[in-house]
Amino acid sequence: MAIQARILVVDDDPELCEILSEVLTRFDFEVKTALDGRKALELLKKNGFDLVITDLDMPVVGGLTLLRKVREAGGDIPFIFMTGHGTVEAAVEAMKCGASDFVQKPFPLNEMKVLVTGVLKREQEKSGLKESSGKQDSAPEIVTRNETMKHLIELVRNVASSQAGVLIQGESGTGKELFARLLHEAGDRSKGPFVAVNCAAIPDNLLESELFGHEKGAFTGAANRRIGKFELADTGTLLLDEISEMAPSLQAKLLRVLQEYEITRLGGKNPIKLNVRVVATTNRDLNKEVQEGRFREDLFYRLNVIPLRIPPLRERREDIPLLIPHFVKKACERDGRPVKDLTVSAMETLRNHEWKGNVRELENTIERAVLISMNDPINREHLLLPGETLMRSPLPPQGDETLTFRAGHTIREVEKNMILHTLGKVDGNRTHAAKMLGISIRTLRNKINEYRERGEIADT
Predict the structure, then answer these.
(1) What is the DSSP string of 181-242?
(2) In CATH, which superfamily holds the domain spanning 147-311?
């Protein structure tokens, strides 16, 4: 369950602010946005926020200046920074000044929810707020009829309550984290926390503090004690995602933790005993990484007590007809739409596609098709698979008229064109247009007001 919180999103890119607002609102967060640091300061003075998500590089008042002004005023609100590839050093500086976390652009939107939840949990820990000991999430649903997958699920349930290390290998998008969550939920640690760390997304010089935490004064800018991911996962499960990206120096420290089950915060003197189950995932062949000297052999054997290899979707094609309706239902429910059907041509196309991105690519394709097919059944043209340049309009054609979109258009552009096209067909009747589009009148009104504010349509 998402933590209830009020979040301020600050970025000079209006579209990114809008997207993040929509995504975080979907997870029951209350979100306000500001397009520059000055506006953000005004909102922070008038409103109580639990978290600020801000771009680092903005004109006039940048993210780092915003953080410093808030700290100078006595504010202790956590900050998450969004940064481009060229400003990682500045992000490190922001962390030293008291920022809670940062994420590099571009980033998957689902990662932001995980990041936000993790930061808010850490704040609860710092404030001494006791978290519920009940399950935070129900066991994940793994849809399959493949015999290899069934065997893996059975194996996970059998070893779930042991302390043995588990290494989950597989291509990107195969569902490695789903198996890690199943391992957590199926065992006696299910009442404890499940904490995930993406080792590939955090620079080496920050990952040690992220994992082990630090004491006040451990380094320049360490103004407060910070609890690391190992401590947050105590009595539960710590997922080290993409463990192959971890620097060798940190691999040695991790090995000691797994041997002794204790950590020492940066700048700390006393070791802290832990009861945590470590699960690691990687999309690389870790045996090969060991042979080529990029991964410690002793750490590999410590992690690889229970090895799981998740097969790619091309090796379990019998699951595709099961996954398609599962993802259609999931996408429709998320967007508040009635569950829709697929045409025979769409189903056959999905079954025969290569799916280089595996299950994740299939889910993303279905979600896009649900969005752009509007109230119609999902047809072949709605899938917009790689290499396709044109897509017929999902709206019923009026005479010989056809609405087309080129690959590369954003979802927002597609959405706007569909809304305006539909309004034109019904002579501006919003009630009729909203019904055709499968959205509420309120949503339609808000979209029209947004287009006017941006100057994209005339103010009538």
Answers:
(1) HHHHHHSTTTTS-EEEEETTTS-HHHHHHHHH-B-TTSSTT--S-B--HHHHTTTSEEEEET
(2) P-loop containing nucleotide triphosphate hydrolases (3.40.50.300)
Residue 324, φ and ψ in degrees, nearest 5: -60, -60
DSSP 3-state of 77:
coil
**Predicted TM-score (pTM) above 0.85:** no
Distance CA(15)–CA(11), nearest Å, equals 9
Cα separation, 114 vs 360, whole angstroms:
17
The upper half-sphere exposure of residue 173, i.e. CA atoms within 13 Å in the direction of its Cβ, equals: 15
Give SS3 for 52: strand
The Cα 26–Cα 15 span in angstroms is 17
Task: Tell me where in the chain the CATH 1.10.8.60 domain(s) lie.
Answer: 315-453
Give the pair of three-digit tokens for residue 155: 């194996």
Residue type at position 50: D
Name the one residue in this structure whose structure tokens are 């690691």.
280
Angstrom distance (rounded) from CA 294 to CA 302: 16
Which residue spans of the chain are classified as CATH 3.40.50.300?
147-311
Closest CA to 434 of 419, 449, 448, 424: 419
Peptide bond into 106 cis (omega under 30): yes
Mean pLDDT of the chain: 82
Q: In this structure, what token pair is assigned to residue 121?
A: 């949990």
CA distance 413 to 379: 20
Could you report the per-residue pLDDT of 159-196, keeping only the tens digit for each?
A: 998 888 899 999 999 999 999 999 999 988 988 899 99
Does the domain spanning 6-106+114-127 belong to CATH 3.40.50.2300?
Answer: yes
Ranges for all domains in the chain classified under CATH 3.40.50.2300: 6-106+114-127
- CB burial class (10 A; 0-12, 13-18, 19+) of residue 104? middle
Length of the chain equals: 460
Beta strands 404-406 and 277-282, pairing class: unpaired
Neighbours of 39 (CB within 10 A): 14
Contacts of 72 (CB under 8 A, 6+ apart): none
CATH 1.10.8.60 assigned to domain 315-453? The reply is yes
- Are the C-beta atoms of 309 and 149 separated by less than 8 Å? no
DSSP state of 270: S
pLDDT, one tens digit per residue, over 5-17 is: 889 999 988 888 9
User: Percentage of residues in the chain with pLDDT exceeding 90?
Assistant: 38
